[in-house]
Amino acid sequence: MYSTLLLLHSWTRWLVLIFGLIAFLRALSGWLGRKPYSGADNGMGASFVGSMHLQLLLGLILYFVSPYGAKAFETAGGAVMKDPTGRFFAVEHLAMMLVAVICAQVGRSTSKKALDAVLKHKRAAIWFGVALLIVLLMIPWGIWNPARPLFRF
Q1: CA-CA distance, 98 to 107, in Å (whole number)?
Q2: So what's the pLDDT on residue 89?
Q3: pLDDT averaged over the chain?
Q4: What is the phi-psi region of residue 34: left when phi exceeds 0, alpha when psi lies from -120 to 50, beta otherwise?
Q5: More confident residue, 31 or 142
Q6: What does the pLDDT read at residue 84?
Q7: What pLDDT was estimated at residue 77?
Q8: 148: which residues sit within 8 A by CB, 6+ positions away?
Q9: Local structure of 76: helix, strand or coil
Q10: CA 6 vs CA 31, 39, 116, 120: distances in Å
């Protein structure tokens, strides 16, 4: 089960990144270009947030069946905090990705409630941009956090 979840979680990140980048660029273009808010803008925002929610669900399940999650629960005295890789997956990755999902959801909710099209784009661009930045920083690329394969098979 662990390897299947890890595979799904690894591949779903690419959906999050693709939908997030498209949603952000559409929102930024709409904001700066003072364009009307279209059904495609709404759909891409929904796709981004939906993929984020799916990724969160997979990640939370993975957290409870992975060796890093188990290590975080079994160690007394915060031993996981002394291991950079364990700390990243047990605390930092989880916490910041949860913040990213919240930011994406706030962007979607506040943009839907705005009455002006440019304000819809502005809110979506800001919140989606913050969410996407956090996601990019917290994916384990191996630059400032533990390295993981870009594509799992």
Answers
A1: 14
A2: 83
A3: 90
A4: left
A5: 31
A6: 83
A7: 59
A8: 10, 140, 141, 142
A9: coil
A10: 37, 33, 41, 35
User: How distant is the alpha carbon of residue 140 from its chain centre?
Assistant: 12
Q: Residue 30's Cα: distance from chain center in Å?
A: 22
Q: How many CB atoms lie within 10 A of CB 82?
A: 10
Tens digits of per-residue pLDDT, 100-121? 999 999 999 999 999 999 999 9
Q: What is the dihedral of CA 49, 51, 57, 58, to 10 degrees?
A: -160
Q: d(Cα 45, Cα 18) in Å, to the nearest integer?
A: 12
Among 102, 100, 119, which Cα is nearest to 111's?
A: 119
4: Cβ–Cβ under 8 A, 6 or more apart, which residues? none
